[in-house]
Amino acid sequence: METWAPHVTVAAVIERDGRFLLVEEHTPAGLRLNQPAGHLEAGETLVEAAARETLEESAHPFAPDALVGIYMTHFEPTAGSSDSTGTTYLRFTFCGQAAEALDERALDPDIVRTLWMTADELRACPERHRTPLVMRCVDDYLAGRRFPLDLVHTHAVAPSASSKSGNP
Predict the structure, then answer these.
(1) What's a Gene Ontology MF term here (predicted)?
(2) Please, how many CA atoms are within 13 Å of residue 76, restricted to the half-sphere of its CB?
């Protein structure tokens, strides 16, 4: 029996002087634009994941200060795939401040470059976006959507406590 589970991802909306930090990355569909984004890893909080992914993909140290939104998107299985359920992503998008890029820091292998674009420049090239969430997150940010970081609570469960109860 196939187990369904969503992929948890994080993204960073970073604005500076009316421009947004984006990455151009290799994807199965070719070069695409995205916010610095990636998967939550075991043992980290969502805020830690957003800071880590932003640094890895853009070389900019990032300090999230608010949650812009939580987004879910689903991709149907591709033809010939053994996956019958497709792929669902649950994306937590944060905004905050980024320091200048660390010159000595290499970008993740799939990242071609970073660039700063205005919302209008980004809106003019939807075919280059990795997903429709790229523009949606910028639009939500521009609309002033901000939620405090404590909206997303991380409750660490000690291994012995979780094994006794069976459920957190």
Answers:
(1) ribonucleoside triphosphate phosphatase activity
(2) 2
